[in-house]
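agent> Task received from the user: take the single chain below, predict its 3D structure, and emit structure tokens. No templates, no multimer pairing.
agent> Plan: (1) validate residues, (2) run structure prediction, (3) serialize to tokens, (4) report one or two observations.
agent> Step 1 OK, no nonstandard residues flagged.
tool_call: predict_structure(input=
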Amino acid sequence: MQFAQSLTIGLLTTLTTAAIAQVATASTPPEIQVPPDQALILTVNASGDQIYTCQVKSDQLNQYEWQLKAPEALLYDQQGQEVGHHYGGPSWEMADGSKVVGQLQSKVDAPEASAIPWLLLQVKSHEGDGILSAANWVQRVNTAGGKAPQTGCDASHQNQEFRVGYSATYYFYGDR
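)
tool_result: status=success, residues=176
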């Protein structure tokens, strides 16, 4: 009986992961699709802040803009349990000790105008032996909030930080 339960649970987990991968692929714009030889290995939801600093525009003196400093978010599994965190790099670090740093490959505007873009990042470095040690690609989708303010950045606010709350879903992919 225990073997049958384990087999059933394993099969349901495999089917659930496959179903999530199909939904993720079907609803993701082509500009941020992962290569076809990759399989979904992890889905996490993020909740936290995008941190901006008021800086001089690089191409215009006496003009200021909010520039992204770093994200700072907690990561949750599909059951709502905290499993890691996301921070500057951009980096994702799991409770199992595994960590990846990504490099932006492409982005598309989010369907919601007030949300930060959806991204495709390629993993450029790994640490640890946990779940992320197999990750090659990261997608950020289903974003809400997080965009830089449109006002409030001028000479009197130079170097000031401003946090904007956001949420997103991150999909991690590795070799099939």
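agent> Step 4: summary for the user.
Residues 2-175 form one domain.
agent> Done.
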